[in-house]
Structure to design on (502 residues):
């Protein structure tokens, strides 16, 4: 087109330049240089180049505004997931890893956690997560920031995950803690006698509790029958003891104190958390079933987080709720605290910190089946005007007790096979990193009245301490590199070995 115009101009010039009344006054004011054809073409070219640059600038500006406002309504499919997400989200996931190896170096410079915008309750965003269809993502609440994505899994995928969980032995030994609760579902799980607790803690059975025995218990994360608070109290008691060990008598005293103070301090939320269900863990890393692999990539696309972070998350937790099964309202993550350390970064951390907690930036919950009746997921305080922990339990009504008060929750969601829920357990710290625990993310499972409910939880673990998370990821990369040095083809990130003890 440019070519054409130039030729036209040329012919105009050469044709009747002298006879044109418009051209001649203009030309006469110009310098003699303008007379030649070559120079007037150059002038035209300059104008056209300027014009094109201007248009390109406008287009670039429009694109910039578009992608900065709504961080990509469209998210790429399973296959190309991380690469194209990081293109769209370049300001946020600037250093998102194109390959698993190199990201850790960039990490320390700029690594932030994208957050999906809720806009308002009922707002719908369109996602392209798989190649053959688009998904709608609906904002369900802003406190917590909660989304629903119907049809996130196909029927077939739901079935495969359920079957894999059954294969993994969902009914088997992994359920000791919850099967206890099943026998005595109306009592707190903490129904062991002091002697039993002592004996369980006394690993070498010498009738004395040494410090390492208590500490090792806190690290096993098998804290269903002793809360981390209890353990800390017991340790404090032990340290006050001149011998540095506790016999049964001393333990009795310390244990009694730890139980009392635990109840006074944290009330129901920690000491009497009740649930009744069965669960298992499915690894999603290298060598896992392709459906599990696909699912994890889809979570990466959905959350828009760097894929390395999602890959380092806990394995997929699959839970089965039969008739009457439930879980009390709880938070999936933990408040940041100077005396706590995130379980997932303990490798990089201080072995002397005692209390390990789960640090889960967000939860993606999948309904793998639709319970016929009951089994709703409840968010008792979603979008409540204010949050007040005391108000959860008052006038004999306990909003965290899903067996009694499920119907009173602010938001209840009926399980529908294939639907995914995504919510953030933490607020943003305002600088692109994970901030405080979002109290509003309190949620529980109402008792199943008819049918069986299967759900799966996918968690993305992040340490609120940016440096600690950075150290941890460096460490993982080092381990990985050491390994891949020995086995050349062992390239993709696979950290199932780190999760063996979860
Ligand atoms: C470990 O803890 C000690 C004291 O509690 C502290 O001085 C040190 O900096 C910590 N190290 C790391 C890596 O956090
Ligand atoms: C929910 O909001 C109301 C109104 O502000 C308040 O009275 C009530 O205590 C809140 N509930 C909880 C559990 O915080």
């Amino acid at each position: 087109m440019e070519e054409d115009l130039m030729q036209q101009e040329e012919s105009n010039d050469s044709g009747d330049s002298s006879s044109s009344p418009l051209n001649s006054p203009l030309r006469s004011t110009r310098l003699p240089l303008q007379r030649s054809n070559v120079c007037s073409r150059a002038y035209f070219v300059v104008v056209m180049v300027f014009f094109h640059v201007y248009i390109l600038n406008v287009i670039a500006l429009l694109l910039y505004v578009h992608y900065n406002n709504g961080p990509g309504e469209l998210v790429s499919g399973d296959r190309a997931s991380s690469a194209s997400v990081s293109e769209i989200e370049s300001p946020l996931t600037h250093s998102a890893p194109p390959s698993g190896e190199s990201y850790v170096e960039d990490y320390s410079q700029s690594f932030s956690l994208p957050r999906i915008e809720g806009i308002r309750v009922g707002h719908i965003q369109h996602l392209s997560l798989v190649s053959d269809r688009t998904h709608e993502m609906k904002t369900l609440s802003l406190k917590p920031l909660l989304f629903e994505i119907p049809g996130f899994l196909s029927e077939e995928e739901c079935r495969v995950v359920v079957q894999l969980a059954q294969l993994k032995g969902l009914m088997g030994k992994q359920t000791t803690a919850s099967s206890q609760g099943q026998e005595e579902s109306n009592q707190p799980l903490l129904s062991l006698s002091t002697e039993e607790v002592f004996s369980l803690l006394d690993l070498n059975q010498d009738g004395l509790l040494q410090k390492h025995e208590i500490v090792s218990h806190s690290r096993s994360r098998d804290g269903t029958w002793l809360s981390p608070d209890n353990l800390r109290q017991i340790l404090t008691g032990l340290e006050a003891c001149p011998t540095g060990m506790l016999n049964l008598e001393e333990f009795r005293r310390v244990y009694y104190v730890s139980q009392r103070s635990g109840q006074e301090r944290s009330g129901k939320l920690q000491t009497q958390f009740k649930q009744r269900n069965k669960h298992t863990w499915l690894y999603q890393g290298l060598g896992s079933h392709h459906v599990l692999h696909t699912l994890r990539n889809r979570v990466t696309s959905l959350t828009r987080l760097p894929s390395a972070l999602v890959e380092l998350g806990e394995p997929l937790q699959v839970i089965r709720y039969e008739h009457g099964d439930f879980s009390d309202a709880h938070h999936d993550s933990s408040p940041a605290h100077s005396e706590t350390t995130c379980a997932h970064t303990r490798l990089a951390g201080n072995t002397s910190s005692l209390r390990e907690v789960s640090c889960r930036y967000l939860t993606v919950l999948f309904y793998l089946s639709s319970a016929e009746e009951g089994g709703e997921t409840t968010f008792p305080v979603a979008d409540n005007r204010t949050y007040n922990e005391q108000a959860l339990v008052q006038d004999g009504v306990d909003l965290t007790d899903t067996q009694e008060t499920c119907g009173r929750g602010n938001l209840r969601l009926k399980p529908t096979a294939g639907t995914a829920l995504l919510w953030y357990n933490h607020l943003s710290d305002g600088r692109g990193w994970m901030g405080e625990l979002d109290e509003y993310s309190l949620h529980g499972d109402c008792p199943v009245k008819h049918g069986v409910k299967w759900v799966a939880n996918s968690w993305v673990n992040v340490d609120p301490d940016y440096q600690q998370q950075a150290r941890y990821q460096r460490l993982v990369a080092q381990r990985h590199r050491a390994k891949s040095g020995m086995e050349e083809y062992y390239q993709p990130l696979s950290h199932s070995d780190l999760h063996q003890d979860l």
Q: What stands out?
A: DSSP finds 16 helices and 23 strands in the chain. The longest strand covers residues 133-141. Residues 381, 384-388, 391-392, 399 surround 2-acetamido-2-deoxy-beta-D-glucopyranose (ligand 2) (CB under 6 Å).
